Amino acid sequence: MTMKELHALFLEHPKICTDTRKITENCMFFALKGPNFNGNAFAQEALDKGAAYAIIDEKEFKTSDRFVVCEDVLGTLQKLATYHRNYSKAKIVSLTGSNGKTTTKELINAVITKKYKTIATQGNLNNHIGVPLTLLSIKEDTEIAIVEMGANHQKEIEFLCSIAQPDFGYITNFGKAHLEGFGGVEGVIKGKSEMYDHLMANDNYVFFNADDDIQKEKLTNYTKKMGFSTKNPNYYNIKFLGVDPFVSLEAEGTQIQTQLVGKYNFPNCCAAILMGKYFNVPMDDIKSAIEAYQPQNNRSQLLSKNGFDIVLDAYNANPTSMKAALENFSLMNAQRKIVILGDMFELGSTAAEEHQAIADVANELGFDDAYLVGENFHGTHTKLKKFKSFDDLKAYLSKNPLEKGALLIKGSRGMALERVLDLL
């Protein structure tokens, strides 16, 4: 079957499923493989549950003409996504970065959807499977698709760009994330910059933070660009007004009061405003979109429970975001401040050094109480309370309950520190 024929089939059944537990009527099931599963073995089950077709790459599983045999299911999914991307009339806005990708993506979508029909990456489906699935969710009336791209090693962003072929792109920042896979901070800069490299090589448009010296220098001789700045009059100016606890800012004399905790969310808002301006979204609509946006999924959420004012930022963590969260929390107005920090993953040989640095920052900021959780934090030299596991923390707090106050909870996804809420 040619890609054109497969795409025609997809247009008749424009819903993709890769998990037999989530089969919907008349979808197309792509039998992906993983280290511990073979999707081909579940293809018949997908059809029995209502899938219209099953795309497989092991012909012995074919028992009817509702099976489409290809050379490689994942490669076929990716090629189909590129074909559909080029078939559609939608413009693709791509974004990557070490921190703030998902929040920025959602802010951009909130702003642009005020004027255009948009689709955007769901959750953080931003890898070699998630990006194709996002592209395949582009509908006939979609005008702009906002595609988030994640990476933990070199050439990954380059590959995702080759699938999505973006018309526009933005990098949130270069931070200490996935240092193990990228090979240090320089590797992070090189890897994330693959997005700008791709856009410039194809004469496409770049949005950037003109206060970020790395981004500015990379784009020095490139003309198809638009940047924001808090200080340089040569770029679109946005003023930071404050954070107590929510970010407030001003653009073109219009004040915007967000529902986002932390100064680190200021550039995320700026990126959404910048793109709104480029796509001619009225400033009143930009303002209302950003002011209405509320973070979800453990990302800088402000909660109240049993006398605690909680900043829940337990979706992910790396040294850059952890330091920013601690510094921001230290500036909040509260009589009593407590922090519970969980291990940061994927730091490779720098793990001990980076965890020690964060323990030192937490100690220097002088919080009323601080708890470090995880094997890496347990190995630090500090006077702060340390626990090898969450269960150890739980056992301690059952006998020594937290005193009420403002509470910051932050750690990598694998630490699942949102479980602290059950201990309050």
TrEMBL record:
ATP binds at G97, S98, N99, G100, K101, T102, T103. GO terms for molecular function: ligase activity. It catalyses: D-alanyl-D-alanine + UDP-N-acetyl-alpha-D-muramoyl-L-alanyl-gamma-D-glutamyl-meso-2,6-diaminopimelate + ATP = UDP-N-acetyl-alpha-D-muramoyl-L-alanyl-gamma-D-glutamyl-meso-2,6-diaminopimeloyl-D-alanyl-D-alanine + ADP + phosphate + H(+). Residues 96-275 form the Mur ligase central domain. Its main location: cytoplasm. Its EC number is 6.3.2.10. NCBIfam families: murF (TIGR01143). PANTHER family: UDP-N-ACETYLMURAMOYL-TRIPEPTIDE--D-ALANYL-D-ALANINE LIGASE (PTHR43024:SF1). This is UDP-N-acetylmuramoyl-tripeptide--D-alanyl-D-alanine ligase. It comes from [Muricauda] lutisoli. The lineage of its organism: Bacteria, Pseudomonadati, Bacteroidota, Flavobacteriia, Flavobacteriales. The gene is murF.
